[in-house]
Amino acid sequence: MDIVSTPATAEDNLQMADAPPEPKAPAIIQRKDYKPFPWLIPQTHLSFELGLEKTRVTATLTVERNPEAEASPTIRLNGDGLKLGEFKCDGAKCSGHTMDGDDLVVTLEGDSHTLTIVTEIDPSQNTQLMGLFASGGMLCTQCEAEGFRRITFFPDRPDVLSTYTVRMSAPNAEFPVLLSNGNNTDSGEGEGGTHWAEWHDPWPKPSYLFALVAGDLVANSDSFTTMSGREVTLNIYVRDGDLPRTEHAMESLKKSMVWDEETFGREYDLDLFNIVAVSDFNMGAMENKGLNIFNTKYVLADPETATDGNFDAVEGVIAHEYFHNWSGNRITCRDWFQLSLKEGFTVLRDQLFSQDMQGEAVKRIEDVRVLRSVQFPEDSGPLAHPIRPDSYREISNFYTSTIYNKGAEVIRMMRTMAGPDAFRKGTDLYFGRHDGEAATCEDFVRSMEDGAGLELEQFRRWYSQAGTPVVEAVLVHDGDTAALTLKQTVPPTPGQVEKQPMPIPLRIALFDRATATHRGEELVMLTDAEQTFTYEGFAEKPVLSINRGFSAPVTVRRDIPQDELVFLAANDDDPFARYEAMQDLVTDYLTQVAAGSQDDAMRAAIGEAFAAIMQDGDLEDAMRGELMILPGETYLAEQVDAADPGRIHEARQGLKAWLGETFGDQLRALHDRANNVPYGQSAEARGARKVKTLALTFLAAADADGTAKRAAGQYDAADNMTDRQGALMVLAGLNSPERTARLMDFYNRYRGDELTIDKWFATQAASLHPNVIEHVKALAEHPDFTMRNPNRVRSLYMAFAANPQGFHAPDGSGYKLIADVILALDPINPQTAARFVPYLGRFRRIEAGRAKLMRAELERIAASPTLSRDTHEQVSRSLG
Ligand code: 0A1
Ligand code: ZN
């Protein structure tokens, strides 16, 4: 329900007449308007004279008419903020060109030409971090999605594939390392202390995969022999002091290379694979052909400064970028509407890899947690879009959890329906059929139909319909028959009011209560709005376990008695379903408490399940931890219509305190036991670290003083960042002398270490401390804080925006803070600024008082006359 928005009246419109003219809304790009580009660019030669403040770029393009496209007398070369220096056609000055906005449009008569274009750019002023930019004295590029047009004029679209040759020259002392895609073909000394290098990439690629790096870097070098015997040199380039922290990334890279050969039959295709780590980066990393550029956060890791979560993230992101070499680079996207073709598929590939490295059960639970806390809210809000959108204004806004995570779930469902072997046949066909092409999601689906033997006609709706389907499940027992009735609804989303039923693959099992066994799992396909499935031979009513392994990205509402949930939480042999039973139990209870009713019997049932989990000797600690984690506040808020974040927070804290109080002795014993496990990377040691800090979080809610001492003890004894940051996180939420002392210690210990100081900011901004807003405001004044570094901005402000307690302060001060951040950041880095908008955009799901304040902040942002295209699009969609 729309709580606060009122339709504009004629009077509103009259009042608007005196207002300054609205900034012109950026054009809408539609998927249906796709047309092949009329020109081919077989060869691209780029010559860079590099400097931090002045870089001169000479681009030489061979252009030919595209026989497969409608002929055009002009060629449009995209630009963004570029000034044209020289322009030549076939070596001669020519007048047949004109600027159209930011683009260069050239009139060409014959069928093939050579265009020479000179531009000059200032990387030091590039705070957007798109195109060529400076970071810590080095130069590097980010071209996806539309950054290449900030370097030179070019048809900057993913379906124009070209073979690149790059020459760079630069002062030797400042930039001893010069890198680009492909292979280093030549290098030498130039005049006046300069040197140069030439690189050639034999694989035709779109401009978004172009990359260049110049800087004073050192490499961790290794090698890998591929399955057909190709010897590949591997380098991870970092700043001098960071070399010791690159070992884990290198190991992850080699594991990824083996895994992709074994699991998907994909082999690396160059003699060189370079990774460069950079401190200033908008996203996690980028898969440029042969030259991946990474946010330092996803490369550098050692036990002293990286948590177990950081180690896993490095492994996952290294794999993700490496896997793009096939799913993204060898086969790229025809247009940006197909983004999920490469991103959804590559996320699935990295998830399967990490499942194989770390254990399937826990990884699956973690992935579902991310999906539910980020993608589900997106899918139920004003920014909901299908995994293959129909339109956009700014493509950067579509690098979303829906494209990535829901995209991965959709392909995972195909795998579930086909089985892993047939799925592999489908992917083999896809890679073989479309190698070297710019493909579409439809191409992928067709390969799955032909290769995996799936019938996917109705399944295509997963590509076109937004919104998380809701499945209601009712099991009725009569005689010896169990009848399962499933009903689905797909909620309306912006621009899509009516929805068609989706095919939903649900793995189910029916448990015999007495023996806690079942007859085997079954895959049920729900294809209609409502269907009933019957099962014979059940003398007693069985217990339904449904959506095992989270086989479909849907919300299941099951009509199930509480004691059956307790049974499943204790007995389900599917680890995800067991976790889910516990989550449902707690979610039901907490949403009721937040709505004002307290059911002590329900709480007791949760206590019983919680105690069983703590005592279960067969459980590994990593899984024990998953079962103990209470559902997050954002997820809980999603379960009700007009959520009151304050009451949800209180309810959740109340349950934590009750569990901490009731099971204090067991939790302290668990903490002590885990504390005695020495540091290591074994599953046992990692699991112990997870339950150790978790135990503290429950204890802290019940007994602040006692737990402050215990947490301080963990902090002081820590020989790794997982324990240290875990303890600091608990302390940061408490009002105690231990808090201040350990926060100071942490800062002094890691001063100057960017990634670790990010943790220091984030831990305070995410804390449960009642004064968190004041803390965040004070931290913004800290000399180490800067709006120019996206990691730092995220560590302070995104941690805060995701902290319901601070962000949803009833007086609206949290909303104002984030709106101020958006307005201040937008002129510096619009891409990062726009990523804050969804937090305010969720107002329709929040109770009326807060919703009004959130909306008012969005309107304040919308009133700014100078908004970027990124922020403008997100704010106007949110206000919708
Ligand atoms: N393709 C990258 C994500 C990415 C997208 C845009 C960027 O621009 C700032 C950077 C990276 C990936 O999926 O890893
Ligand atoms: Zn990706």
From TrEMBL:
This is Aminopeptidase N. Keywords: Aminopeptidase, Hydrolase, Metal-binding, Metalloprotease, Protease, Zinc. One of its GO terms (biological process) is proteolysis. It holds the Pfam family Peptidase_M1. The gene is pepN. GO terms for molecular function: alanyl aminopeptidase activity; metallopeptidase activity; zinc ion binding. Belongs to the peptidase M1 family. Gene3D superfamilies: 2.60.40.1840, 3.30.2010.30, Neutral Protease Domain 2, Peptidase M1, alanyl aminopeptidase, C-terminal domain, tricorn interacting facor f3 domain. Residues 467-558 form the Peptidase M1 alanyl aminopeptidase Ig-like fold domain. It catalyses: Release of an N-terminal amino acid, Xaa-|-Yaa- from a peptide, amide or arylamide. Xaa is preferably Ala, but may be most amino acids including Pro (slow action). When a terminal hydrophobic residue is followed by a prolyl residue, the two may be released as an intact Xaa-Pro dipeptide. Residues 249-462 form the Peptidase M1 membrane alanine aminopeptidase domain. Its cofactor is Zn(2+). Residues 1-23 are annotated as: Disordered. Residues 46-209 form the Aminopeptidase N-like N-terminal domain. Its EC number is 3.4.11.2. Residues 563-879 form the Peptidase M1 alanyl aminopeptidase C-terminal domain.
